[in-house]
Amino acid sequence: MKKLLLPLIIFFSPTSAFADITAKYVTSAQISIDSPYVITNAAPSTYSISGNNITTSTGTGDSVVTNGIGGLNLGSLSNGVPALVNTNKSVTTAGSAFSLSESYQAGDVTQSAITPSSGIATLPVLGGQTTVISGGTLGSGSISSLSSGVHSCSGAFGSGTSCIASTTVQIEID
Hints:
Blueprint: H1 2-12, E1 21-33, E2 37-40, E3 46-52, E4 54-58, E5 65-66, E6 71-78, E7 81-85, E8 88-91, E9 99-105, E10 116-117, E11 120-121, E12 130-133, E13 142-145, E14 151-154, E15 161-173
Antiparallel strand pairs: 1-15, 2-12, 3-9, 4-5, 4-8, 6-7, 10-11, 13-14
């Protein structure tokens, strides 16, 4: 029985397992401060005309175009603004009611080169939309990172700033 017991003990005893264990630690910490910028859109040149009981024409003398409508002459630009072609107007049926609406807006001229000063450019006042972002200020904000992977953002962060900290642990058993 003793002879049989020894092989059974060896057969049923646990065997050693060999495995590779890999641990990866990735830690990251950053403070971001927005930079200043300006977006400006120049106003376009526009022309419109509408009406009832109105006859239109363009030109003068021998070069009259009946039922022609004036507008913007894109072939004749002055500082980026097109020249206006006038529309001649007359009432079609005299003594009858008529309506007329005509509008013209000269767009913004082409701007010269703009040089930023202190991180932000001084722009001319344009007829279009202008958005100015002054940029961020750090204030007394700070970030601390410990070798244990613990991060902390502290202090008073100013406008346009962010504090991001992270630690990723990946354990792989193969």
